[in-house]
Specification:
It is built from five helices and 23 strands. The protein has about 500 residues and is an alpha+beta fold. The chain has three domains: about 150 residues, no CATH class; about 100 residues, Immunoglobulin-like (Sandwich); about 170 residues, SPRY domain (Jelly Rolls, Sandwich), CATH 2.60.120. The strands form four sheets. An eight-stranded mixed β-sheet has the order 10-11-22-13-18-19-20-23, covered by helices on one side. A six-stranded antiparallel β-sheet has the order 12-21-14-15-16-17, with no helix packed on it. Strands 4, 5, 7, 8 and 9 form a five-stranded antiparallel β-sheet that branches. It starts with a helix and ends with a strand. This is Fibronectin type III and SPRY domain containing 1 like. InterPro entries: B30.2/SPRY, B30.2/SPRY_sf, Bbox_C, Butyrophylin_SPRY, ConA-like_dom_sf, COS_domain, E3_ligase_FN3/SPRY, FN3_dom.
């Protein structure tokens, strides 16, 4: 019966997953259908605009040519009209002179005839008819303004849609996810020497497989990529996966998107737990700051109720073993001199990494991990349920590793930023200079309960960087780290229950 139920549950789970996959595919198809309709409408509008632009240019050219013809017509007409007017004037003067000469033939007096003859001779010499050119200044030929658009017509007849680049192919094998960077590599299905650049789009998601249409972030765009790979660096991996797609562009148009590829970008993400932090700590997501005025009056009331009502001894007189373990999620606030705040996400397996940076004037702080059962009066490193490194800049400067109230002084410079590496399954907790990746100290133990990142602050503040992969340099250093931790045997090789 039980085995049949388990088998049925597996079938139900498989069907539910398949239904979810099909529904996602239907959503994708509907989204694509809407895209076809919207894009077709946009393309038709663009086509109208392009042809309107051609018509506009042709109208402008036609108008210019018409103006040129009219200007030539006007020029030639004016020249010919001027010549006609000159010829008419010359003809009128010549006819008048001819009439005068004809009348002069009838003059009988020799002296008067001679005078008339001289006048006619002088007038003939000065007559415009004899200085007038009888050749037209312009011809009626207008062939120099004729057109032949046969070539242009052929060009217009060859108008067609732009050649669209084919969709690139992302090669998952060549893609690399490391050190909070993602390198995406792709290739064209066939050589295309007209490709000008590529556009890469990416977005974060918590779903494996095909990208979903609903409840997803918008694509972020990286334009004008000249090569066939691109590296996004400095990412915060606050989602399980990232989707990537790429398209090729020539000088005129962008091609189809590649098939999307989903790459795993899993990392430990946590915030600080404000619900159980010490009242003298001001906590906001990934930042904690000492607040000497925080919870004044409330803390004394809490202590009074605890000591009076429950008979719980004061922090200074309470032994670690005499208190019942607190349950995470409904635990009490840290109080007394335990200026502590924990992360809100438990570590139960795997390798994880985060970084911590202290304010320059921070007088005292601790960075490490603790079991969920860490008591509300406990300080990091002073119990067998917590491990940390502690920095003290008050009165005298000390830098030490702490566990189970044992202290190991560290003869290294306190770095600007501390990297914390936790290998739960391997039972290792290591601290590094986050910038140089120099090893500061390692605990080697066996973790038997879920861990929480832990922090103590007094007179200062800390800021965290989470969503980080284990750096490649740290992974490499793990091979040689065991030999370096032998000098700290007083704190290492401790199995805690």
């Amino acid at each position: 019966m039980d085995s049949q139920k388990e088998a049925l549950q597996r079938i139900i789970s498989t069907l539910a997953n398949k239904n979810d996959e099909i529904q996602n595919f239907i959503d994708t198809l509907n989204h694509t259908l809407k895209g076809v309709q919207a894009n077709s409408s946009n393309i038709l509008s663009e086509l109208d605009e392009e042809f309107d632009s051609l018509y506009s240019i042709l109208d402008e050219v036609k108008e210019g040519m018409i103006n040129s013809i009219k200007q030539e017509q006007t020029r030639k007409s004016q020249e010919l009209q001027s010549q006609i007017s000159q010829c008419n004037n010359a003809l009128e003067n010549s006819e008048e002179l001819l009439e005068f000469a004809t009348r002069s033939l009838d003059i009988k007096e020799p002296e008067e005839f001679s005078k008339a003859a001289r006048q006619i001779k002088d007038r003939v010499t000065m007559a415009s008819a004899f200085r007038l050119s009888l050749k037209p200044k312009v011809s009626d030929n207008m062939t120099h303004l004729m057109v032949d658009f046969s070539q242009e017509r052929q060009m217009l007849q060859t108008l067609k849609f732009l050649p669209v680049p084919k969709a690139p192919e992302i090669d998952p094998v060549e893609c690399l996810v490391a050190d909070n960077s993602v390198t995406v590599a792709w290739r064209m299905p066939e050589e295309d020497n007209k490709i000008d650049h590529f556009i890469l789009e990416h977005r974060k998601t918590n779903f494996d497989g095909l990208p979903r249409v609903k409840d997803e972030q918008c694509w972020e765009i990286i334009d004008n990529i000249k090569g066939t790979e691109y590296t996004l660096s400095g990412l915060k991996f606050d989602s399980k996966y990232m989707n990537f797609r790429v398209r090729a562009c020539n000088k005129a148009v962008a091609g189809e998107y590649s098939d999307p590829v989903t790459l795993e970008t899993k990392a430990l993400n946590f915030n600080l737990d404000n619900s159980s932090s010490h009242l003298n700590l001001k906590v906001e997501d990934t930042c904690v700051e000492w607040d000497p005025t925080g919870g004044k009056g409330q803390e004394s009331k809490i202590k009074g109720k605890e000591n009076k009502g429950s008979g719980t001894p004061s922090p200074k007189r309470t032994s670690v073993g005499s208190r019942p373990p607190a349950v995470r999620g409904s635990r009490d606030r840290f109080t007394g001199e335990s200026y502590t705040v924990l992360g809100d996400t438990a570590i139960e397996s795997g390798q994880h990494y985060w970084e911590v940076k202290a304010q320059k004037d921070c007088k005292s702080y601790s960075v490490g991990v603790a079991y969920k059962t860490l008591g509300k009066f406990d300080q990091l490193g002073k119990t067998n349920t917590s491990w940390c490194i502690h920095v003290n800049n008050w009165l005298q400067n000390t830098f030490a590793a702490k566990h189970n109230n044992k202290v190991k002084a560290l003869d290294v410079t306190v770095p600007e930023k501390i990297g914390v590496f936790c290998d739960f399954d391997g039972g290792q907790l290591s601290f590094y200079d986050a910038n140089s990746k120099q090893l500061l100290y390692s605990f080697k133990t066996k973790f038997t309960q879920p861990l929480l990142p832990g922090f103590m602050v007094w007179c200062g503040g800390l800021s965290l960087s989470t969503g980080m992969q284990v750096p490649s340099a740290v992974r490499t250093l793990q091979k040689s780290e065991n030999g370096m931790t032998g000098s700290a045997s007083s704190l290492n090789n401790v199995v805690t229950q």
